[in-house]
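Lab notebook, bench 4. Still working through the backlog of constructs that have no structural model yet. Next entry is a single chain of 239 residues. Request: give me the structure tokens for it.
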Amino acid sequence: MQVVYEDNHVIIVSKRSGEIVQGDKTGDEPLSETVKQYIKEKYNKPGEVFLGVVHRLDRPVSGLVVFARTSKALARLNKMFAEGQVHKTYWAIVERQRDREPEIHGVQERGSSSMIHSPFIEIEHWLTRNEKQNKSYAHHHEVQQSKRAALRYRQIGRSDRYDLLEVQLLTGRHHQIRCQLSAIGRPIKGDLKYGARRSNPDGSISLLARHIEFEHPVSHQQIVVDAPLPDDPLWHCFG
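Model written out:
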């Protein structure tokens, strides 16, 4: 865990792959408890520390997680997330499609990789969720018990074998990015559940909650934060 922003009402941390945000049936210590302990020790707080979980990231995903340090901030952040007032950007490393080159407007070489600028593409599916498998399935039209899912993506980097995509969610569904990218033939590196060819050595998937911006729930100042890149050298080839 790395703290990237904190004040009296809000704390934002960069989650490592493998950490869980909230407690689950595994019994592993969740990130929320780690953050509570950090606050307790740093500020020498007696008794129980208040910390509100505002949103989650899947266990194999890394990147930014926002917590509320006060009940006032929690109520307002919950409302902001529900109303789409918190803007998040994800980076995903996906398998390279050699038969389809991006529409490139600018290229900046970085050793064996390039940072590029391509237009956003919006995709829409209807997702159904299998609770037993903990997996979502994408459909091209509405089916029974499905929910509409939409996102925008563009290619911002490329290497010999992989592309780097920037993704913006337009809806919030279970495993949405993982499921929708897989449905268009772009499974995320390491994501065996959604069609990747092989796992990552550390069990992660190459999906990063990279950027977040929102109006502070109490001070109303604009908060803009970027997550550090994971330790995997492939991320730094793009970054």
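Notes after review: Residues 178 and 194 are 7 Å apart (CA to CA). Residues 100-112 have pLDDT under 50 and may be disordered. Flag for follow-up if needed.
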